[in-house]
Write a structure and sequence with these properties.
This protein is mainly alpha-helical and 78 residues long. It has helices spanning 51-60, 65-77. The longest helix is centred in the C-terminal third of the chain and has 13 residues, at 65-77. The model has no long low-confidence stretch (mean pLDDT 81).
Length: 78
């Protein structure tokens, strides 16, 4: 806009509504990992294991360490 000598408080400024450039991202119904247990929140945790227990956890979980630890804990509790 060229300078017109009008005081700043008299200048109209047009604001444009932001336009979505893509439809990717954002919240979508059904997005994300399914819950491990329906209705129960899942937390992320970091643990330290000796190599021998790590190998057992992977074996119990068919290569998935977290699944092996969950399986071991569930069998211990029941």
């Amino acid at each position: 806009m060229p300078y017109t000598g009008t005081p700043a408080d008299e200048i109209e400024i047009e604001f444009f509504k932001p336009v979505a450039l893509t439809t990717w991202g954002g919240a979508r119904p059904g997005a994300g990992h399914p819950a491990l247990v329906a209705g129960e929140p899942t937390i992320e945790s970091t643990i330290c294991l000796p190599a021998s227990l790590d190998a057992k956890a992977k074996r119990l979980g068919d290569g998935n360490r977290s699944a092996g630890i969950r399986k071991a804990l569930e069998s211990f509790i029941e």
